[in-house]
Amino acid sequence: MLGVMAALLIAVGAVVMVTAPAQNFGWFAYAPLSDSVYSPPRCSLPEVLGGRQWLGLVAVIAGLVLAGVAVGLRLGQRHIR
C-alpha cells in the first residue's frame, strides 16, 4: 500500500511539473554599447521554476522518500521459516 502511494505521488508530481506553464527568464544576446565586459547574471533554481513546478518537484521528492521508506520496511521485515 505504501509503495502504491509513493508511485502515485511520483506520477502526479511529474505530471504537474510537465504541465505547468514555463517560467519566463533569460536575457537577449546582444553586444553592449560600452567597452566593459558584460557577463549575464547567474540563474538559480528558484528563478527558473514557477509555483506549480515547485509543487510538482516537492511531490516527486516526497514520493521518492516514501518509496525509500516502503523499500526499507520491506527489506527490514523478519522472515519466518
Key terms:
3 helices, elongated, single chain
Can you walk me through this structure?
This protein has 81 residues and is mainly α. It has a domain at 2-21 and 43-76. The protein has three helices and no strands. Helix 1 (2-19) packs antiparallel against helix 3. The two termini are 24 Å apart.
List the topology elements.
Layout: H1 2-19, H2 45-48, H3 51-76
Helix pairs in contact: 1-3
Number of strands: 0
Q: What is the straight-line distance between the termini?
A: 24 Å
User: How would you classify the helix and strand content by structural class?
Assistant: mainly alpha
The main pleated sheet reads as: none
Structure at a glance:
With 81 residues, the protein is mainly α.
